[in-house]
Every structure is written in C-alpha cells, then in structure tokens.
Amino acid sequence: MAYDILKQLADSPRLPAELRAALGISSVNFFTARYLTPLAKSGYIAVAGGEKNRYLPGKQYRILRKGKAVARA
After folding, report:
1. Which terminal residue of the chain has fewer beta carbons within 10 Å of its beta carbon, N or C?
2. Which residue has the higher pLDDT, 42 or 55?
3. Helical H segments across 32-73, by residue range
4. pLDDT cut 90: percent of the chain above it
C-alpha cells in the first residue's frame, strides 16, 4: 500500500482525501497513522510547502527523492 501511495504522488502533490479515495480507504485516522506519518518520518514524502503548511486542513503531500527512487523501481 505504501508503494501505491508513492506511485500516486509521483505525478503531483495530492490531498490525503484524494489518496484515500484512490486506495479505497475511508478511515482518516487509520490512513494517517498507518501510512502518511510513517512515510513522512522515513523521508519518502513531505507536506508540500514545508513546515508552515503542516497544520493546514488543505495540505497536500509530495514525494521526495527517496520516495521517487522506490516508485520507479
């Protein structure tokens, strides 16, 4: 599932709701705790716009270099 998230982000930054819909996951808390937070802490993805946008409701996630390497594999 993490690979699928990286593939989704390879094209452009996306909202968490867009990612959940594409992957068929309805629970916001589960998706964030299970996928977004670990991927961000591991350096695969980040909030687009940096730390200042971290707490905004409309934040988007973007893929980082480390994530692009995995998505291409």
Report:
1. C
2. 42
3. 37-41, 65-72
4. 79
Exposed, middle or buried by CB within 10 Å (0-12, 13-18, 19+), for 1?
A: exposed
Number of domains in the chain: 1
The CATH number that applies at residue 56 is 1.10.10.10
Q: How many helices (H) and strands (E) does the chain have?
A: 5, 2
In contact, 16 and 61? CB cutoff 8 Å: yes
Please answer whether residues 16 and 31 qualify as being in contact, where contact means their C-beta atoms are separated by less than 8 angstroms: yes
Mean pLDDT on 23-30: 95
pTM assigned to the model:
0.88
pLDDT of 7-16, one tens digit each? Answer: 999 999 999 9
Nearest to 38 by CA among 6, 12, 65: 6
What is the DSSP code (8-state) at residue 14?
Answer: B
- In the numeric block, which tokens belong to residue 45? 């993805």
